[in-house]
Amino acid sequence: GAxxxxxxxxxxxxxxxxxxxxxxxxDFQATTMFWYRQFPKQSLMLMATSNEGSKATYEQxxxxxxxxxxxxxxxxxxxxxxxAHPEDSSFYICSARVETSGLQETQxxxxxxxxxxx
Amino acid sequence: xxxITQTQPGMFVQEKxxxxxxxxxxxxxxxxxxFWYKQPSSGEMIFLIYQGSYDQQNAxxxxxxxxxxxxxxxxxxxxSASQLGDSAMYFCAMRExxxxxxxxxxxxxxxxxxxx
Lengths: 118, 116
Hints:
- The complex is a heterodimer.
- In chain A, strands 2, 4, 5, 6, 9, 10 and 11 form a 7-stranded mixed sheet that branches. In chain A, strands 1-3-8-7 form a 4-stranded antiparallel sheet, with no helix packed on it.
- Chain A is mainly beta.
- Chain A contains no helices and 11 strands.
- Chain B has strands at 4-5, 10-14, 19-21, 24-25, 32-39, 46-52, 60-61, 64-69, 74-79, 88-96, 105-106, 110-115.
- In chain B, the strands form 3 sheets. In chain B, strands 2, 5, 6, 10, 11 and 12 form a 6-stranded mixed sheet that branches.
- The relative contact order of chain B is 0.34.
- Chains A and B meet through β5, β9 and β10 of A and β5, β6 and β11 of B.
């Protein structure tokens, strides 16, 4: 099946620094990628939808200036957590959609990035 | 309102027995898809099974089957012959047709523990 990679797999940073997370579709092109956030023992919450070559669509309550998303190519989307604070500590997961017709479009998930802000 | 509801925060099952994980959904769209994902402690999301709203038969994939009851808006996952490796978090998700993004909406999840 299709593979989505994320880098880094985990990161520890100081409060106030920015952290960039990369999401790559390794063997397919993804015009649409999704970024999720997951707190311990909770569900995945969609943060934004990233479209290649255009601005990301953010979900309500997600600060677009705080979480910068860039989808510069069909295989790469990046999420930058700017001026990270301890409350931004979470598990961030990206996924890429394989473009097919119908609702059974497969959405492949990356392995996730654990962010800890001290 | 919750679109996907999983009422079992945690479930235990004896190895080799079957277990049913509940999922109910809410949508007014006649066209939708239902998914189940498994998330082990490593964090990766593993796709298990898919059911389309117009599918006449319940989906099956190996030891996984989906008990789809459209009138009740339920899509329960049945795992037969549980194995220790099945211990994980399980998420039910739905994709509705409207909108170009067609993103997945996830339930709160059920933590399944398989006992030896």
